[in-house]
Design a protein that fits this description.
Blueprint: E1 4-9, E2 14-22, E3 25-29, H1 35-44, E4 48-53, H2 59-62, H3 65-72, E5 75-79, H4 94-97, E6 110-112, E7 117-120, E8 123-129, E9 138-142, E10 145-149, E11 152-153, E12 156-157, H5 167-178, E13 185-188, E14 194-195, H6 196-202, H7 204-207
Parallel strand pairs: 3-4, 4-5, 5-6, 10-13
Antiparallel strand pairs: 1-2, 2-3, 7-8, 8-9, 9-10, 11-12, 13-14
């Protein structure tokens, strides 16, 4: 069972997940602000950040990426449909979420698509494209871990009223998640953790999907 540490970051209390991949190496998912907090966590535990996995490109999930990349040299991964958000404060909602904040462009990144596998040491993260919240929203599957971003929440789901959002695509993404074999520990972009089996049985949106 892979070890995961949660850091709550930024003005919208985004969950950043630190996944331990090998001795002293970690991957961070959605560092949404306060890079100094992440760097302090890494230093205190003598950890090396190797990769940053982004579930989508909204500012509250990417705000610390530039500073972390400069400090650690970590590789950045984002779905090709959301890549423009790393260089556009309007597309990323940065000018809405934090209109007076500091904008940091990220130009060094890798794009991913559905089914891609990202390896870090002995650990593999499989990309599942789950549009609905944004066109490029993804989940990352790793062993019994599901990094869900703003797709699946505890008893809820992500918003679909932002640019690029789609209620129909969100429902199809929920259908894909519901059909996954077995159970997963679900690590959502906001609020508390859950499990896929719990959501299958109790999430009103997932329960209504055939």
């Amino acid at each position: 069972m892979r070890c995961v540490q949660t850091l709550m970051l930024g003005s919208l209390a985004t969950n950043c997940f630190i996944v331990y991949t090998d001795d002293g190496h970690v991957v961070a998912a959605d560092p949404g602000g306060e890079p100094e907090k992440v760097l302090s966590f890494l230093k205190e535990r003598n950890l090396s950040l190797t990769k940053v996995l982004l579930t989508h490109g909204h500012w509250d999930h990417i705000a610390a990426v530039s500073e972390l990349q400069k400090a650690t040299g970590a590789e950045v991964y984002i779905h090709e449909s959301d890549a423009e958000m790393l260089t556009d404060p309007h597309a990323s909602l940065a000018d809405w979420i934090e209109p007076c904040g500091d904008w940091h462009t990220v130009t060094d990144y890798h794009t991913v698509k559905d089914g891609d596998v990202i390896e870090d040491g002995s650990v593999k993260f499989t990309v599942m494209h789950t549009p609905g919240h944004t066109k490029g929203s993804v989940c990352y599957l790793c062993e019994d871990i599901l990094l869900a971003g703003d797709t699946l929440f505890y008893l809820s789901r992500g918003r679909t009223d932002f640019p690029g959002g789609s209620n129909a695509e969100m429902l199809e993404s929920f259908r894909k998640l519901k059909a996954l074999p077995g159970d997963y520990r679900v690590f959502p972009g906001h609020n508390e953790l859950t499990t896929l089996d719990f959501e299958r049985n109790h999430n009103p949106i997932m329960r209504g999907i055939i």
